[in-house]
Amino acid sequence: MRRYRLTVLLVAVVLCGTLLVSCHKKEELGTDPVGPDRSLPYQYPNWMAMIDDGKYLSEITIPGTHDCGADLHTSEQGTESKYTICQDFRLSNQLLMGVRWFDVRLCLDDGGGLSVHHDKYYLHKSFTDLLTAATDFLNNNPTEVVVFMIKQEWSVASDHDFQQAVMHIIWSWPDWQSRFYLDTLRVPKIGEVRGKIVLVRQYGNALGVGNAGLPFAWDDNTTGGYFTNGGVNIYVQDHYAIYTVPYATKNNEIMDCVRKANADTDPQRFYLNFTSGEEVPKHYLQTTAANINHVIDEWMCTPEIFRKCGIIMVNFAGGSDDGEIGNGFVQTIINCNNLQNKIGTQTWQHWNLDVSTYRNGDPIPTVIDPTVWDTLKTGAYCYYDNDQGQNGEGNGMLYGKLYNWYAVHDPRGLAPAGWHVPSDAEWTELVNYLGGAGVAGGKLKETGHWNSPNTGATDEVGFHARPGGYFYDTFGAKGAEGFWWSATDSGPSFATNWEMRWYDASIESYDEQKNWGLSVRCVKD
Q: Which residues contact 112 (CB under 8 A, 6 or more apart)?
């Protein structure tokens, strides 16, 4: 359904001197026969706050949604839903989950309005509805950036008429000059566009205006290629007609695009990577996503490989209501960014440490034999249950590695350049800033991943503390407790660590044996 075009031109009418093409009779947003969205599996409304202002928009890893308006609960597709629905969550909830790049498909109505379509199917919402949802979100989350990548769908108006309709709505928007980023040639830095909607257009600048939005164009059904549009450089993988190839072919094309993005030293080249595809008439859209999403999700959790991954466009972001598609893909994409968070006067890394080399490049040994581990007096790491991530749970992306304290103390440096493992005093400063040991744990704990009842968890400062457990004679406490080393030596065999638990909101300091394997979180120099 994705790009199959109308084979017969629709009847053209001239209205107010502008050629418009009818795509359907304008309808109001109807009732919601499918019911409300289910509860969100996670929320990342402010994750871009941890991105450095000086980074280009093209430098960071961004989750996107293909056909963002084709959601299950507001599109009223009924029996057609298996052919048209690409998302289970509506736009406002996609935003709360952390999606920031949106594939927007608009049909130019015979009345001059712009309605949201997937192929021939009207999705019972308008361009104005989408802009309202994005604006409301940005009002509440001004650190974030929203990208609307707009193309014409189902109507066959000229670029001039379609662009005129898009820009008429934008130029009529309250405070549009401060709300939208419309530069035609220059890739913005994050600091320039916080709180704004960035316009990316898949149509020509027929009006010849300087504030038309960034141009994106690429070959239809491309398996991967470089394209230049008026000075804007992009690489696109958008192989949607996958009914003639096995899923493995599409998955390999997605992976190849991620590898290229990660290796590219040009900070101003966009990488646009569609995980969506069709097997018409063999499979429904959800079935295709069920065979792709989890493969790429687990592959991207491979430790330490991918940080700059481009824009990854997803069907069924946040999973499917029936559970056929897992919900963690968007979270994985966000986690690829090397995020940091200002808490008081300190800046903390957003995730637990997951490096396998010291700062000078020397490898840190991996040790999985508990007998060997217990006798070590030198640095080592392991993963919980020695799981490197194939099941999507015990991997570095979710919990990081478990290090002994000898790795923390190694003079070659465990933390990346510009960072260090915090001292006991620095942990104490964090805890005091958050109101003391009795409540600070709750403010640091993530609302997911912990065992129930996860008492007091609010994650209000975006620390995302997760219960990574420990390793000594055996592995233990994952899901129940989290332990983080400090850099403070407390005796020949002991060093200080900080602990949070699932059953209360506290965080406590203890002395632990140096050959225990615990998590590490870094603070900025």
A: 15, 16, 18, 20, 165
How many CA atoms does the CB half-sphere of 491 hold within 13 Å?
Answer: 9
Domain containing residue 440 = 342-524
Q: Is residue 148 part of a domain?
A: yes
DSSP designation for 518? B
**Token representation of residue 227:** 């394209």
Q: Whole-structure pTM over 0.85, yes or no?
A: no
User: How many other CB atoms sit within 10 Å of the CB of residue 284?
Assistant: 17
Co-location of 356 and 258 in the same domain: no
Question: Does the pLDDT value for residue 95 go beyond 50?
Answer: yes
Do 292 and 346 fall into the same domain?
A: no
Angle of the 424-433 helix axis to the 437-444 helix axis, nearest 10:
90
Contacts of 8 (CB under 8 A, 6+ apart): none
- C-alpha Rg value of the chain to the nearest Å: 25
Q: Which of 337, 367, 385 is the last residue of a domain?
A: 337
Q: Dump pLDDT digits (tens) for 195-232.
A: 999 999 999 999 999 999 999 999 999 999 999 998 89
Residue 30 in any domain: the answer is: no
Contacts of 176 (CB under 8 A, 6+ apart): 170
Cα gap 123→51, rounded to integer Å: 34
CB 215 within 8 A of CB 163: no
Rounded (5°) CA angle 367-523-299: 50
Contact between 486 and 503 (Cβ < 8 Å): no
Q: Which of 337, 366, 386 is the last residue of a domain?
A: 337
Which residues neighbour 457 within 8 Å (Cβ) at sequence distance 6 or greater? 442, 445, 446, 447, 450, 505
* H-assigned helices in 273-411: 285-290, 293-300, 329-335, 370-375, 396-399, 405-409
Q: Are 471 and 516 in contact (CB under 8 A)?
A: yes
474 in a structural domain: yes
Do 353 and 229 share a structural domain?
Answer: no
Per-residue pLDDT reduced to its tens digit, 235-287? 999 999 998 889 999 999 999 999 999 999 999 999 999 999 987 665 689 99
Number of compact structural domains in the chain: 2
Same-domain pairing of 374 and 296: no
Q: What whole-number distance in Å separates Cα of residue 463 and Cα of residue 507?
A: 13
CATH of the domain at 239: 3.20.20.190
Residue 286 within any structural domain of the chain: yes
- Cα gap 455→441, rounded to integer Å: 9
CA distance 7 to 219: 20
